[in-house]
Design goal:
Elements: H1 4-10, H2 24-35, E1 47-51, H3 54-70, E2 89-96, H4 102-119, E3 123-126, H5 137-142, E4 149-158
Antiparallel strand pairs: 1-2, 2-4, 3-4
Bound molecules: flavin mononucleotide.
Length: 177
């Protein structure tokens, strides 16, 4: 069995996916990885919007593009045609605006999801840009995100259509012994 450290080292952001849906049991297991996320003060306040509806994922991407256009920010070529890279699964993670640790909790959930995805040879990518969906009240309503909640993080998963090598990572560390 692959060791967790090997999975951590093997993970790389995947930005091209096969047009192939994920089986239900795989999505269930991905959400089990999310369930076991630690949260500050054990509040467990994260809400997961698990989206497999292709049209809705494209609509969410269009919301991000519209928000950037509003701010006169050009869409970088890598984000075309979709900020979600046409992945078959988009998970948007929302949490209470008044929870100071919501971004940290959500980032831990994304890492759990990405490492589980890597362990079963799925691709995944953290999508911070999903936060721009907040500029679109209609989309927020469609995703059932209440007014006291905000988008804290998002992640896509799917069968990879590219095989990026893990990026070399530096480690700034001082040991005090
Ligand atoms: C907080 C955060 C937000 C990110 N947002 C995006 C994003 O919106 N779109 C994207 O393609 N990648 C996004 N990424 C992925 C990073 O670009 C990626 O992790 C980084 O380039 C290192 O590559 P690696 O994941 O392959 O190690 C994000 C990563 C983090 C940690």
């Amino acid at each position: 069995m692959e060791q967790i450290l090997d999975i951590i080292k093997r993970r790389a952001s995947v930005r091209a996916y096969l047009d192939k849906p994920l089986p239900e049991e795989v999505i269930t297991n991905i959400m089990e990885a999310a369930r076991h996320t630690p949260t500050a003060r054990n509040l467990q306040e994260l809400e997961y919007k698990v989206i497999t509806n292709k049209a809705l994922i494209q609509k969410a991407s269009d919301s991000v593009a519209a928000a950037l256009a509003e701010q006169d920010r050009p869409v970088q070529p890598k984000y075309r045609p979709s900020f979600f890279y046409s992945a078959p699964l988009l998970i948007i993670i929302a949490g209470p605006r008044d929870n100071y640790w919501v971004n940290t909790d959500a980032a831990l959930a994304v890492q759990n999801i990405m490492l589980y995805a890597t362990s079963i040879d799925l691709g995944s990518c953290f999508i911070g840009m999903a936060r721009f969906i907040e500029s679109d009240p209609k989309m927020i309503e469609e995703l059932h995100i209440a007014g006291d909640m905000r988008i804290a993080a998002a992640v896509v998963c799917g069968y990879p259509n590219e095989n990026p090598a893990p990026i070399e990572k530096i480690l700034n560390v001082e040991f005090f012994t």
